[in-house]
Structures are given as C-alpha cells and as structure tokens.
Amino acid sequence: MMSKVPDRLYIDENDRKLYDEVIVEIFRGKIGDEEKRWERKDQFLLAMAIGFKNEVRRPLKKKEGFIRKEYLKPEDKALINAIAIYDTGSIEVLLDKQKVFSIAEEYAHAGIRILHGEIKSGEPGSYLKKLEKDLFEKYKGLKNRL
Amino acid sequence: MRFEKIVLKNYRQFRDVEITFDKKSSNDLHIFVGVMGTGKTNLLNAICWCLYGDEPYLSKDSQQLPRVNLKAVEDAKLGENIQVCVEVWIETEERNKYIYRRRENFRIYEENGKPAPHSQTESFEVEYIDEEGNMKIFGDVKEELQSYVERFLPKSIREFFFFDGERLDRYFKEATAENVRHAIFKISQLDILDRVSERIDKILSEIRREAGKINPRIEETREKLEQKENALKEIIRMIGECKEQIKRAKTKIEELREEIARLPDVDALEDERTRLKSKYKEKISFLNEKIKEKRSLLIDYSKTILLWPAIEKTLKIIEDKRKNKEIPPRINKDMLEEILKEQICVICGRPLDEESKHHVTELIKEVKITSETVQELYRMEEFFSQVKEQIKAFEDRIRKLTEEIRQYERDLEEINKKISEIDKELLGRDQQRTRELHEKLSYWEEIYETNEQRLGMLNSQAKNLEKELDELNKQLDKELKMENQAEKLKRQIDFCKEALQVLRKTKDSIMTQIREEIHRKTREIFFNLIWKKATFSDVIIQPDYSIALIHQMGYDCLGTISGGERETLTLAFTLALHEVSGFNCPIIVDRPLAMVSGPPRKNIVNIFSKVSNGKQIILFFTPDDYSHDISEILERTASNKFDLKMSKDERETSIEVK
After folding, report:
1. Do the interacting molecules here have an ipTM over 0.90?
2. From CA B576, how far away is CA B449, in angstroms rounded?
3. Helices (DSSP H) in B40-164: which residue ranges?
4. Which pLDDT tens digit goes with each residue over B384-410?
5. Which of A38, A44, A79 to probe by mutation at the B interface, max B CB count within 10 Å?
6. Chain B CB contacts of A142 below 8 Å
7. Which of A73, A142, B421, B476 is most enclosed, with most CB atoms within 10 A?
8. Taking the complete model, does pTM exceed 0.80, yes or no?
C-alpha cells in the first residue's frame, strides 16, 4: 500500500528567518508573489542539495509548511526522489512519499544552516562566487562520468 | 652701432649704476637676470628716457612712483636738490662715440609730513668723441640734438629694436599685412616723401586759387575741384578708419573664436552626456539580466551537480532493475491488490477461495514495484538523461555568461570614464564667461560686417569722386588753355601734378623694392635660424604686405605654428628690417622666453646666441626663465652676465657682473 502523499514540503519553523536572510543575499531583485513561491522552491532545493553534499540530515523540531506540492515540477520531484533512493539504497522508498519528503526536508534543514553560515561568514555578494567555484570543482570530478 | 655703456644715477631703482657692455668675444651678447621688480624693464625705460624723453614700458607700479630714486629722496634734506641722470654711450662702426645724457633735477619738499620730490628742470645733451679722442658737446638746439639720436636710433622705429617677449610672440598673430606695411614704411623712412607730397599739394592749391582770380569760370571749376578733392581726402581718411576698424574687428574675432574654441561646447557635451547616460542605463539592464541569468543557472546547476551522486545512483538502480527484468513488473501489483480487496478475480470473475487468497498475498509480496512507481522511475530516467546533457554544457554556458558579464562591465566602465571626463569639462566651464565671449563675438562680427559694407560704399564713392575729379581737372585744363593769361599758371599746375604723380610712384617703387628685399632677407635669415628646416618651404611677403609661412605640404601655416617658431619668424623679419634699412642697431629683448615653453626655449636662445655674432644682443631674464639648460647655452657665448639684486628695503637695485 502506498502511503498518503503529503500536500506540502515543510521546514523547521526556526529556519524561516534563515531562508529570509538567504533570499536577500542570493535571490535579490524585485519579484512578485508567484515568482516568490518559485524562489522559495529554489531556496529549498538549494538548501537540500547543500545538506546532501555535506552529507548532513537534521530532523525538524517543529514543522512549518513552506512549499505546496503543486508548485513542484516533475523535475523537482525527481530530484527529491533521487535523494531518497540514494539515502535508502532502494527505489521502494518511492512508495512512501512521506518518507521521501521527510528525507528532503531533513537535508534542507541541515543545508539551510550551512548555507546561511557560509553567507554570513563571507563578504556580501561573495556566496555566488564561492558556489560557482564549488560547482566547477564538482564538475571537474564528474565530467568524465557523464 | 652698439651700446658701450649705460650710466644711471638716481634713476628709479638704480641709485648709482654703471653698466659696461664689454665685448669679450666675437659674440656681442649680454644677459641680465633679475626677479620681478628688480628693474629689468626699467633699464629699457632708462634708455628710452635718455634718448627720447619718454618711458613707454613703465609698469603700473612704476607709473605711480617718481623717476627719482626713493632711497635718495629719503636720504635728502628738505629743500635739497637731487639730480637724476642717465647716460647712454654708443660706439659707431667708425669707432666714434656718442654720449647721450639726460638729466632731471628734483627738489625735495615736504608733503603730509613726508619728503616729496618735485621736478624742476630737465636737460639733454650729446657729447661726441671722435676716434682720436677729440670731444665736442652739443646742447643748444633741441631739434639738432634729437637728430643725433635719430641718425642711429630713430624714435619712430624703436619698436624694431626694443622688444618684450610678448610682442615677439604677438607680432605675426595680429593683422600682419598692416604690421608689415607699417614696418616697411617706417623703416624706409618714406614719411619724407609724404611730407613733400603734402607741400606740393598746398602749392598746387595756391596756384589754382591764383588762376581763379583771372576768370570767374576758372574760379568756379577750381572751387568745385577743391571741394571734390577735400571730399576725396575725407573719404580716403574714412576708408583708412574703416580698414583700421576692420583690422581690429578681425583680430578681435579671431582672438574670441580661439578662446571660444578652447571652451567646451556645452550643448554638444550635454547631448553626449545624455546619450551616454541612456546607453549606460541600457547596458546596466543588460548586465543585470545576464547576472540574473547566471545566478539562476548556477542555482539550477547546483541542484543537479551537487545531487549528481543521487542522480547517478538512481540511474544505476533503474538500469540494474531493468537488467534483472524487475521492471517493467510481470504482474500488475495494483491489480493483485484490487483482486484481494474485492475477493473476486478481476480476470475470470470467480470469488477467491482461501488458497487463492494466500497465493495472491504471496504474489503481492513478490511484486515490490507498482506500475505507477515504474512510470515515475521512467520519467525520472528521462529527466536525468536530459540533466546529463545539461551538465555537459555547464562549463561552456557559465563561461559564456561570465564573458558576457565582463564585457558589459568593461563597456560600463568605459562609458563611466567618458561621462566623468565630460563632467570634468562641464564643471570647468564658466557659463557667464561663455555668454560674455559670445556677446563680444557678435559685437565685433557686427562691427566687421558694418565696416566691410561701409568700405565697399566708400570705395565706390572714392571711385566716383576720382572720376569727377578727372573730369574737373580736364575742364580746368581747358579753361586755363582758353585764357592766355593763365598759361604760366597752367604750366605750374601741370608741374605740380606731375611732381605729385612722380612722388607717388617713387614711394610705391621704393616700398616695393624694400618689400622685396626684406622678403628675400627674411626668408634667408629664417631658414638659417629655424631648427625645423624640413617643415617649412618658404616665407613670402606678398605685394599686399601679407606674410605667409609655407609648410612643405604647400599651405600657409602661419596661424598654427608654435610660440618659438613665431618668435623666430619675428626675429628674422626684424633682422631683415635692420639689414635692409641700414640701421644696424642693437636688439634688446625683455623676457624673450616669456611666451615659449618646452624644447623650443633652447632653440630660441641658440638663435640669439647665433645672431649675436655681428649684432649686439641684450637679453633680460627672470631666474625662472633663465633655467640651467638656458644658462648653459647662453653663457658659452655671452660677453657679460649681470645679476640684478634688490636691497632689503626694496628701494635700490644693484647690478653684479658675473
């Protein structure tokens, strides 16, 4: 039996402030409400990717809804699924969407803290440069496997 | 001739000074160096005062002061007399000496509790000493005395041997044709012919008046003739005035245009600034778009690249499952669950017995993946294949965007630089001054145009009057012929008219001859002196007295040459004037480097050094002008270097010979 599919992705309630601060640094510019939601989704996925890269998962203490499921595109869901598969080593995890979402949320919970820390410790505007550098390093390591 | 000595007693800054221009080599070059206010220019004034009784180069400060030395006034008792005396000793080519001596006596009175000098008497005398030492003093008839000055240094042409640096620079900047004509006229001393013409003109008028007494018709024609002649003279005077105004206006217009050209074109700059600002805005928005694009791309890539291990593992699992034929599943798990739920076989409709239930439950355990999950896996696989391709393009896409951003940043930097250059120019502009200059330019342009029109009108009036005069002259001739008694007078009139014509032709012919000679000499001297021999091909003094300096490319470049080159041309022209006129007088230049900067300074002093071989040259410098490189050149050839030193109380200048 498939578990009930959650209707949204959650963050820890203490993380909202961190997301807001991160948005100032990375997601600058005038954006509308619609775009804001997409930006929220990007923030979440970035935090999740960073948590994954650093191999840190952190259970949420007090959940707070962050992104409604309908804003997630199939590509976003594919990435969330892939983490769950990687983490559990099995595709059967896909049958348990609660777990899939929960894994993603825990990585994002850890990731947003790392991201926030990195942003705050660096010069203003320097995070994207650091990210670019990190991506190039990672890319070098994986381009032969593509 | 050359200056041998100058003696100054109580003259302005100089209490008791004797300057001897000993010639120690073939170069007759003498240098004076002194800071502003030590009296360099007053040495020139002293010479002028002694020779001509005036001081044309007085500064505004000196104009406020008496000619007598202030220290001498302070030291004098009330009622005492002080004598100011300047002696100029000259030596001719024949080794005769002339000593010009001018004295002025001052008596000291008291004014507001201070001693005040009052001029009492002035005297001038000339002492002549011949080669054998015989001495003669002239001092009685003023005109006779002045003639001893005029024969060597005529007052009317002193501007061609006493210069200041500014005049040397300005000479060929101003209305040159008029300057050259004036110089040639003066140096040719043709004013004597003008005076003769005036005299004959008077005689002619008297003879005609006499002839008028014989016959009333003759008198009537004579009167008309005289009226017309006077009218013509007036028109000629007005033409002269008009030309003078045109010349002044032309010079002013050129000066103003030059000054305006040096000012920034505010409107054009404002337009350019606006254009650059809008270009800047456009580029900034492009740059922001690119930055945004790169940011989005980085965030997109961060999801896929950082999650690559998960993607790679998922792809591997799907691949393995496919190999193990676990996907697609042989049995539809959802259908089994449906059968178990409904307790009826959905295929044959038979109700499930216990054995069948058990069998179906076992099958469900065996079939781990639902077809829905498989579909999801397939979609993931497809998407991740695209991700793979996208990641492959990562390096190129990011690098391309980075380069585009850099290019926009460079463009913006360039635009900003241009804007700040314009801002700087605009900041330096003086709107009030610009407006004033434009107003002045309009004023002088109007004067120029009005006088041009007036000149055309006057020329045509003069032509008509000449025609009328011609006819009246013919009529008078006819009437005189008819009257036997007037025959003798007619002959006299004819003679006078012919004499006037001869004088006019003689004047023109001498002027032309001298002009041609000066032209030839100026060219010769200029090309001997100028350091850029290959740049210029000719110096021409045209029949209308305009001067042209021809560039080797064939155009007249007089208006665009440097200060040093202009000074060289003036010097060449001056030397040519000296040579052609026969007045071999010294040249005195106050601050020859005042208007020259950079490397031509050395060239100019080299020229003076060269010219001093055969001509006495006296140069006045400030210590700033007399820099090390200049002194090195001049002191190789100079016979004397005099340092002017001011006393602490600034009342007296002493001269030290170095």
Report:
1. yes
2. 36
3. 40-52, 60-63, 70-75, 142-150
4. 999 999 999 999 999 999 999 999 999
5. A79
6. 305, 308, 391
7. B476
8. no
